[in-house]
Amino acid sequence: MNNSALLSLLCLVALLHQSLAASPQFNVIQFGAKPDGRTDSTSAFLAAWKQACSSTRGVTLYVPKGRFLTRSMLFKGPCRNSAIFIRIDGTLVAPSDIWAIGNNPNWIEFQYVNGVTISGGVLDGKGAPLWSCKLAGRKCPTGATVQQTLGFSFCNNVLVSGVTSLNSQMFHVVINFCQNVKLQGVRISAPGNSPNTDGIHIQMSTGVTVVNTKVATGDDCVSIGPGAANLRIENFACGPGHGISIGSLGKNVNEPGVQNVTVKSTTFTGTTNGLRIKSWGKPSNGFARNILFQHATMNNVQNPIFIDQRYCPDRNCPDTASGVRVSDVTYQDIHGTSATEVAVNFDCSKRNPCKGIRLDNVRLTYNKKPAVASCANADGTTIGLVQPGSCL
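The structure assignment produced for this chain is given below.
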C-alpha cells in the first residue's frame, strides 16, 4: 500500500470513529434497567427505544453485560432515522411464569422500522414451562401459545448478526411483510422434543438472506410460508429439527406462492426431514417455483428429499388433492445417508402434478446400501450420477 492510499485509509477510519463517537448512545441502564435477571426492565427498554426512534441521527441502543428480565416489548416505528444500531452484550430473559409474559404474540417485536441492526447477545425465551404445559394437555395461556422470541413485521433493511436465541416458547425468529432482511451468524437452540419451536419462519417477504447460521430445535429449522420470494439460505446447519421446509402451502384457497428460493451449502444431522416442500391436500391457487437446493449433506436424515402434497394435520382434506403447483425445482449435489429406505419421495398432487423436477448428482444411501426413490405424479429429468435410481 502506497503512502497516499494509507493516508486515505487512516482518514476514513478517523472519520468513521468520529461519526460513531458523535452518534447518540442510549444505555438501557440509564433508563432504569437492572442487570440482575429479576427486576422487570420492560419499561426501561421501551423508554430507550422511544429516544432512539425519535432521534434524527443514527443512534446506538446499548444493552450491557448482565441478565435483563423483560415482558413483551413492541419496538414500533416509523422512526425519524434509518440507522438504529442495537448492541447487546448481555442476555434478555423472558419470565419463567408463562402467565406473566403478556398476550402480545411476540416477546420482542419490531414493526414499521426501516434500517435497524441487532448485534450480539442472547435471547432466553424460557420456553420449558410452556412446553410442559402443552405436552401435559393442560390449559395454557392463550397469548403464550403463539409466542415468538424475535419478530419483524413491515420492516425494511434489517440486519441480525451474532444473536443467540435459546428455548423460545414457540417460533424463534419470524419475518413477516418485510424487505431486505439479513440474518448472519445466528445461533438457535431448543431441545429436539420442544413443540412448535420453528427456528426461522419467513412469509410475505422479499429479499431475505440467512447465512452462516446454525439451528437446533424441535420443529422446522427454517419454514418458508406463502408470499416469500427472492430468498437465499447459505452455509446453514440444521439438527435436531424437521429440516428446511417450503410450506406448508395451500391451507387457504387464495394464497400467494413461493418463488426464487436458493438453499445451498447446508448440513442436516439427525433431522426428520432434509429438503422438504409441503402443501395441504385441498384446493388452492398457491405455487412453489424456481427453487434450487444445492450442495447439501445428509447425516442420518429420515426424509432427505421430500415433496409432500398430501399434508393434512387437521384431517379436513376430502380428496387429499393439493391445488398448489410445484414446478422448476432442482436438487444438485445432494449426498449423505438416509435413516429410512426411501430417501427421495415425490408425493405430488394428482390434480397438479409436479413439473420440471431436476436431480443432478444425487448420492444417498441407507444402511450402507442403495436407498429407494418413490414418485407419484412427478415429472422431471436426471443429470449425472443419481442414487437412488430416479423414478421420474
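Interim note for the steering committee: The radius of gyration is 23 Å. Residues 55 and 80 are 6 Å apart (CA to CA).
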